[in-house]
Each structure stands twice: as structure tokens, then as C-alpha cells.
Write a structure and sequence with these properties.
Order of helices and strands: HHHHHHHHH
Strand content: under 5%
Shape: elongated
Distance between the termini: 25 Å
Number of strands: 0
Helix content: 55-70%
Number of helices: 9
Radius of gyration: 19 Å
Structural class: mainly alpha
Length: about 200
Amino acid sequence: MKALFDYIPLIVFFYLYKTTDQTNPHHPLLDVFGLTGATTNNHIIVATLGLSLATLVVYGFLFVNQKFRLEKQQVFVLLMTVVFGGLTLAFRDDFYIRLKAVLINLGFAFALAVSPLFLNKQSAIEKFLSPVFALSVNGWRKLHWAWVGFFVLMAGLHAFFAFVFMGGVYWGEFTAFGDMIVMVIFMAAMFYALRNHIRKDNVKP
């Protein structure tokens, strides 16, 4: 359920991204906060403000719902959104918000890669998925690096759609939906590849 909350800010972002005139620097949401838009990328400026506000609301709710605490990855995502969203709004430059997802995925890849150093040589993937799968030491190692590679791939895809492919025309679409589709495909492939290693005690008769 918590994972679904993560997509609420993205839905808000995509709606504003698609419905805001990119050449009109005036928007009611900007006016409320006394902010000035831009004449070339105003749809991204407005969408960034919506994303930042929605993120604060969602994570504020989660903070209360989780007994006044946030998980480490939630704190990381919140800080990255506030910092890079704030830079985007302050300088009216969408470079910063485009960079956010790239750095978040690289951060996850790095944190996952070094997790065995802090979990008694057990990777975060093994700790999280060991109730589901029964793998050998070598199997867990391969799955660990597969997940590290996945986050590096996601960082590369975000960079590609943000800065390379057609000048970033489809960056908003990939940010809102593309990475979710890639995640679902990766998860489905993982469960299919490891279908024979699912713990029997987790299979209901």
C-alpha cells in the first residue's frame, strides 16, 4: 500500500505537465505561492511545484501513519524532491528536476551495492526477499547485483529521456509511467526466473 502512495505525486506531476501551457508564465498554482513561471518550460515549472507539494502531503501523511517516522529511502526521496524541486522553482530551470530521478536511482544503486558492509555481509535484497525465496549464497549474490544493475539501468534511462532522446520531449511521460513499466517488467522477470526457488511454506494450498 505504501508503494501506491509514491505514485500520487507523479500523477499530480503528470496532470499539471500535460494541462499547463508551457509558454504562459502565469498559473493559479504559481500565483498562490507568489512564484513566477517561464515562457518556454512553464508546464514543467508548474508540474514541479505540484510534485513538491504532493510529495510533502503524502510523506507527511506517511510520517504520521508510521508513528512519526520515515524509512530511510522515504527520507532520501523526500529530500531529493524538495532540494531539486526547490532549485527548479528558484531558477526556473528544469535541468534540476530532470536530474532528480537520475540521482535517486544512482543513490539506490550505491546504497544497495554497499549494503552487505552494514548488514553482516547480507545484502539488503537478501534481507528483504529471503522470506520469499530460498537461494544459495551465489544465488543471492547474483540477485543482489541484478538489482544494483537495474537501478543503474533506470538512472541511464532517466538520463536518456531527460537529456538525449528528442531533446527530452517524452521525459515527462517516462518519468510518470515509463519507469513503473520497466519496474513491473523487471519484477515479473525476476519472479519467473526464480519461480522454482519460491519457499514452499509461502505457497498456500
